[in-house]
Amino acid sequence: MKDKHLRVRIAQCTLIASSSPCPRRKVGAVIIDPMTNVVISEGYNGTPRGSQKALCGGSTCKRVTQCIQSGTQNDIGCHHAEANAILNATRTGNSTLNKWLVVNCDPCLMCAKLIHHAGLVRVWCPKGQGAGIDYLEENGVSLSAI
To answer: 42, 82, 137, 138: which one is catalytic?
Structure first.
């Protein structure tokens, strides 16, 4: 993939993140086909599709009210951007096999497992530390810093 196309996809990821209703952290994810430079799917962190609730706790963020540390207790809160992007691809019948993911945060362990099992082969992210990054590295998913 050419650098100019990658820069556009990173910018697109940031723009998609701005759609998130989450007051805590806005995350965007874009799945791209590196051979064609085409976006396969996208997602941001938010409530379930069609939900009438503004946030995961209705009008408040459960993770904030329960003082849950970032990267922990991922069963509480909104759907993650990476999961939404993978599920949106599935919903529309687009394969994620051998595709790339651009995300504006490091994937948590739960999302790292989804990324690996969805067949995504490269993740562009800030590439800090954490269980998700460790999992991806241990399971052969290429990581590149944005």
So the answer is: 82
